[in-house]
Amino acid sequence: MPQVLDSIKVGAERIIEIVKSLRNFSRLDEAEYKEAHIHEGIDGTLVILNHRLKANGKNPAIQVIKEYSPLPLVTCYPGQLNQVFMNILSNAVDALEEYNQKRTKEEIKQNPSQIKVYTQKIEDNWIKIGIQDNAGGIPEKLTSKLFDPFFTTKPVGKGTGLGLSISYQIIIEKHGGRLFCNSKLGEGTEFIIEIPIRP
Ligand SMILES: Nc1ncnc2c1ncn2[C@@H]1O[C@H](COP(=O)(O)OP(=O)(O)O)[C@@H](O)[C@H]1O
Ligand SMILES: [Mg+2]
What we know:
Layout (H helix, E strand, L loop, with lengths): L1 H25 L7 E3 L1 H16 L9 E5 L6 E3 L1 H24 L3 H6 L3 E9 L3 E8 L29 H12 L3 E7 L3 E9 L3
Parallel strand pairs: 2-4
Antiparallel strand pairs: 1-3, 4-5, 5-7, 6-7
Helix pairs in contact: 1-2, 2-3, 3-5
Bound molecules: adenosine-5'-diphosphate and magnesium ion.
């Protein structure tokens, strides 16, 4: 009985956490231009994605490593930035799942799937958010197409090819920021978001 009650309590706490994150993620006032905590946005997105990070019958667990530096409040559209975090993190999970299909259990154990998220204040008025995975990387000939609308390498029904082009619009046009991708075949991919702290 005490064990059952314990798991009910843990379950209820997780539900609270997920509902809170979903509300935060989609809240109407998050559509406004305002000062926001970047780390809260990333953490909330990771909570919503948690079911894809845990091991399940088909996929091994993906370890998330956070390396956060102290950041000031950033004037931004928090709801839109969350959408960018979601697009880039989901792509990393997709890439890791696809990569693991081609790896043996032994190879996965030697080099477990991971996503690293780091933040830094750079220059006076800028912050940087990096999202790295250790999946298969992107062939060089494709890197110039990544941000094109409808560019996808995923099967019909899975990819729309819109995630990165929408992210590009949000970062460059809505926030006056910068968005880059560094990728090395066989090593992994990193997306770097840079945005001004104040417009
Ligand atoms: N982390 C990543 N690792 C490998 N390939 C990636 C990664 N992120 C994006 N891509 C490539 O960029 C393409 C476009 O991504 P996106 O615009 O989000 O569309 P979608 O995810 O619907 O395919 C993906 O189909 C994939 O080929
Ligand atoms: Mg995508």
